Every structure is written in C-alpha cells, then in structure tokens.
Amino acid sequence: MILRKVKLTNFGIYNGEQEFDLLPLPTAQFNRPIIFVRGKNGVGKSTLVTAIRLCLHGALALDQRVAQQEFDDFLLRQIHRYPDGGDQPTAASVEVQFDYVNLGKKVTYRVVRAWNRQGNRVVKQLSIWGNDEPLSDGGIEQSETWLRELVPPGILNLFFFDGEKIQTLAEDSDHSHLLLAETVRNLLGLDTVEQLGKDLDLYIARQRTHSQVLHLQEELEMLLVETTALEAQLVDSGQRQLELEAKVGASQALIAAQERRISAEGGKFASEREERLAQRQTLEAEIEALRRQVGELCSGLLPFAIAPKMLQAVSNRLEREYEITQEQIAQQALERRLGQLAVRLRSPEFWSTFEEKVDAQLQATLLTQITAELQTATEPMAAATEPLLLQVADKERSTLQSWIGQALDQTPQRFSEAISLLNERETQLAEVKAALARTPTVESIQPLLTQLHQLHHQLGGLEHEHKRVRDEQQRLAYRKDQVSMQRQRIRDQIDAHEKETSRIFLASRTQKVLEAYQARVTARKITHLETLLVNRFNQICRKKNFLDRVQIDPQTFQTTLFRLGKEFSRKQLSAGENQLFAMATLWALREVSGRPMPVIVDTPLSRLDSEHRASMMQEFFPFVSQQTLILGTDIELDDELYRYLQPAISHTYELRFDAVQGTTSVEHTIPQPDPRPSILIEQLTLL
C-alpha cells in the first residue's frame, strides 16, 4: 500500500480545501521514501493522521465499541469553525487516494468520506473508486464492510507509530503486553479465528438434533453469553485501568510540584525548626559553661603562665633549697654522732677494754689526735653553709611545684582548648541563629502542608482504586479462562455424544483444528518476531550484539531479554533504549506481517537523547518502509535532522497556523539535491 494523496475540506483546523501529495519522488540513483510534515504544537499534524484513519475506518478509528451518537458528535466537532463566529461551515470531507495490490493487481483506490449537519442529524456518505470506477454501490454499510476487508483496522494499527503507542510499548507493563498481544493477533488474523470459534460455538449451541445433548447445548449457549459479557467487562476494566494510571501519574506530578513549592517556601527548614531550637539551647548552655571555665582559669594559675622563665627559676630554687636542707640535716646528725663518740672516748670504760693499761698522758695524746682527725673528717659541706632564701616547708614546696607544673603545661593547654571550643560553639550558634532567622514558622506553611496531605490522601485513594481495578481485571481474566475450559469440556462432551450427527461433529472438530492452528501459527510467527526484533534493535541501537536473544511468551506476551547468554530485565535499559526497543518492535511486527504498508510516525524523537536520535536518523527512518511519513515539531525535526536526512526526503510540508483566521495553511517544498557526498547517500545507493 502506498498513499498517494490526502485531501481535507473544512476538517478540524484546516479551512477550505487543503491537499497533501504523499507519493515519494525517487531520484535516478535511489528511492527517497521520507515525507516531512513539520510545525509547532497544535497546528494540525495529529489531525492529518486522524483524518487518514477516519477516512479508511470510520467509527472504528475511534474505538471498537463506540456508540453511533458518540461518532456523530465526533464528526460534528471535526467541522471547521471560524473564530469570528460568523457563518460556519456545515459540511466536511476527507479524501484518501492510495495504491493497493489486490489479487495480484495494483489498483489505485480513492476513498471519500463526507458528512454534513442537517438540523440535529448528521448525514454521512462514503464513496469508493478503483481505477476511477465506482465500487460498492450497496450503501454505506456495505462500503464500510468492503473497506474493512480491503484494509483491516488491526493491520493498519501497525503502521501508525504514534507517541502514545511507542511509549506504551516502551514500558515493561501489563498494558504493553496486552497491546503487543492484540497487535500480534490482528497481524496474524487470529481475531478472525477467535470470532470464527465463537460463531461455531453459537452454531453448536443452537442445534437441537439430539435430546441427550440438549442440556449441554443450553449450557454452552449460556457460557457463550457469559464469555461475551466478560470480554466487554475486560475492555471496560482495561480502559478504566488506563484512566487510573493517567490520574495516578497526574497526582504524583501535583505532589512533586507541591513539595517543590514547600521547599521553596522553606518547608525543609520549618520541619527542622524544633530541632534547631533545641540545638540553640544546647549550644548556649555549652558556651556559658566554657566561659565559666575560662574565667576560672584566668582567676587561678593562668596569670603565672605569662612568666614561664620566672616560674622555672622558682622551681629550680625550691629544688636547690630542698637539697641544702637535706645536707644541713645530715651535717647536724653527723656532728651529734661525733660528740657522742668524743664523750665515749673520754670515759674510763672505753680504755678499760684494752689489755695493756694506757696511761693518762697517752690517752690525752690519742684523744687529741683522734679529735683532730674527726673534726677534719666532719668539716661542713659547702651546700650546708649556703643560706636559705625561701625557707619553704616540704609540704608547701610540693604544692608549689605542682602549681608551677600546672602553670607551665596543663593550664595553658586547657585554656587554649577551652578558647578554641568556645569559638567553635559561638560560630555554630551564629549559624543556627541565622538558619532560624530564615526559617518560617510552621504556621506560615501550614496551608501548603495541609494541601500536600490532601494530595497524598487523593493519591492513596487512586492507587487503591487502581489496585482494585487490576485485581478485578485479573479475576475477570481468570473467570474467562474457566469459562473457556468449560466450553471446551462441553464441546468434547457434545463431540462424544453426537458423533452420529455429522454437522455438530464437524463443527467440534473444526474448533479443535482452529485452536491447534492458532497455537502453531502464533508460535511460528513469534519465533520469527523474536529473531527480527533482536536484529532491528541491535541495528538502530548501534551497539553490535547488544542483545543476543529475545524470548516472547506466547500466552502472556511478556518479553525476556538475553545478553551474553544471560537473562536481564527491561528495567536495565535506559529510557532512550526502551524507546528504541519499542520502535524495533513495531518495525519487526511490520516485517513479520509481510505487507508493504507505509509508516506514519507521530512525534518520534520527543523522548530520545542526542545519541539515540542519531541512531533513529541513520538506521530507522530511511529504511523502515518504502514510504515514511514523519510528523513532528519544528524543534523535534530541526534543521540538523533535516540536513542529515535530506538525501532520503522526497518533499516537505510546513504547517503554519494563522491565529487571526483560526486556520492552518500548508506550504509544500521539494528539497534540492545536496552535491556533497554522505554516508546516507552511499547506503541508499546500495539499496
């Protein structure tokens, strides 16, 4: 399928008739598949995508189960409105022309969907031409059916890469797995197989050919009704879950904004105000104690510390006088002992001990000589004759020496430590007082805190409701599986009882064949998808062999990644790599489908960093399809990106909004070939 032209008449933001020529224009050397649609936000880029989907699929472009009145209201809202409030258009239309290979032949189709307001009614028209010949003239319902068979809505979803779908696939969540499962089923036509299975159940249930299986048929019909109801409830539950996820995200954003506001208002300081007040009180008490300690040191020994030489001299003198005193005491004791000896020598008892009698003259001579020798031996030492200046008692001397030691060593050190600690505590007190001066009171930010509490309460309610809906969805899915097994059991029973009834027997057998076919096709296609997904991700990620295997569960469609033979989580990928993984998934799905369809990418680069943007430019956009329509803002699709992709760009549409007229104009340009060589030109030439 190749889109040729899209024509909008009074559609949305486009006034009058606006035309987009989307057929790629090749050069002599290579194809140029890219068409740029660039403009600011709100100028009609997404409106163009909506118009294409609406033209091809009508109400199905909105939802599978949209009500007719809801679709009519949507169509009326798409009719352009002038801002001045004058005569407003009452009709609008969308025309899409495309080439499509049908039954081996290329046919150019032209589909025109128009509607107009007639009172409270909406009159709708759908016209289809093939090679300028009118087709499907059986009314609008027959035309819708014919168009859905030509271009199935499930297949077309593969080729509209909008930002929401990419973001959903980029998240490793249940919703992304459901989206992948739905996409694969549509891709393989398994939705048709499932519907055929339901039709066969209905056929079997309505057969009344055998009384023995009548109750089984009735039970099967009731289970079929329950299955339909469960599927509807699952769709509603899934939509509710998406709404709650959006509300939870919005509530979390409000809480983050409120916390930033409280922080800006001094909320963090306010929450610490009581702690700082206690800290100030403690510091003031410590400072007062330190000041008393400094005062006591100043009134004690500290003044003596300013004369350390004098203190050392006093200490030395005290030690010297202690030595003199000890020598004087020793001299006195010696003289006393000598006196006692002299008395002994003069006593008769002393001389009577000799064997020979010593006369008095000899005694006197000996006594004189001994006394002279003793006096010479006991001559006073020089220190003993040195005068005492301080005359301090031993106890007082020890006390003075202790005070001198403290004054020379301990007291100055204690004073220095006390002063240093006092300065430190006074600095800390000044900082605490400054912080308290900047700190608002709790009362001043109490309204902000109350509002934050309310936001947390709302978030808790939303998260609780989200969990309840998720649990309800799991319960519904479990019940659906149970009903499916019961239906299978009943079909087996009917098959066993009604083998003689060929139609019921064949229908039951067909059910089993369909189930086996569905399982085998799913397994084979998923295996192919896994291989392509690894190749495409490694290609656009620009990291050779970053992934060596991907495993997709055929039941849950949960994706498991392998690198260097080891399993690792999707959460280990960066945000940009997850975006590339989503794009690689859509690219691989497109290749698995085997259908040459165009690719329409809406806001493709908004969540990518510069490195991953370069990967998308070099590996994805030029080669993903034979026709690639890229829609983005002038910031996202900037001049640098345009210059790099210029060899692959067929033409460009610039969308410009006129605020006065309230409409968007379309400016069409075709880029001039760039004579400078580039890697992209070489790659396109090789293709």
Describe this structure in words.
- It is a single chain.
- The chain is α/β, with parallel strands linked by helices and 687 residues long.
- It has a domain at 282-437.
- It contains 20 helices and 15 strands.
- The strands form three sheets. It has a six-stranded antiparallel β-sheet with strand order 2-1-4-5-6-7. Strands 8-12-13-3-14-15 form a six-stranded mixed β-sheet.
- Strand 10 and strand 11 form a beta hairpin.
- Helix 16 (502-541) crosses helix 17 (575-593).
- The longest helix has 56 residues, at 442-497.
- The chain is elongated, with a radius of gyration of 52 Å.
- The two termini are 20 Å apart.
Name the overall outline: elongated
**Strand residue content:** 5-15%
- How many helices in DSSP terms? 20
Class by SSE composition? alpha/beta
Widest sheet: strand order? 2-1-4-5-6-7
The largest β sheet comes out as: 6 strands, antiparallel
Brief overview, please?
This protein has 687 residues and is of the alpha/beta class. It has helices at 45-57, 68-77, 140-150, 153-156, 163-170, 174-188, 190-205, 214-264, 267-271, 273-299, 308-346, 348-351, 360-377, 394-438, 442-497, 502-541, 575-593, 610-620, 639-645, 679-686, and strands at residues 2-9, 17-21, 34-39, 91-102, 105-118, 121-130, 133-135, 160-161, 549-552, 559-563, 566-568, 599-602, 628-632, 649-658, 663-669.
